[in-house]
Structure prediction request, 125 residues.
Amino acid sequence: QVQLVESGGGLVQAGGSLKLSCLASGLAFGSYAAGWFRQAPGKEREFVAAISYNGGSTTYADSVKGRFTISRDNAKNTLYLQLNSLKPEDTAAYYCAAGILSTSVAGRAELYDYWGQGTQVTVSS
Prediction:
């Protein structure tokens, strides 16, 4: 079966950095676009970033543009999210996802086929 397993979350101070990883198994990861979403308590799940199957295209939510970087290493079946200049409002559970889709529609969560369990990022002020 397909599994996406996230790691790297934790507690950091505002202005700090964190790198999240998502290890995929049970699928040809290099054939799938992948993305990150986040959800804070009491709020809707929101799109964060996405990357095309080969890493050639990326897209970001305006709220994280210039601060976060999505990347992937298909040889390692791993998706990454580098979070820099963190703000308290970045606090959320972060979820990775994979699917057959274009980055042009990457913000639509319903287009993703597989999801990780989430990893918590907490940014203190």
Summary: The chain has a mean pLDDT of 97.
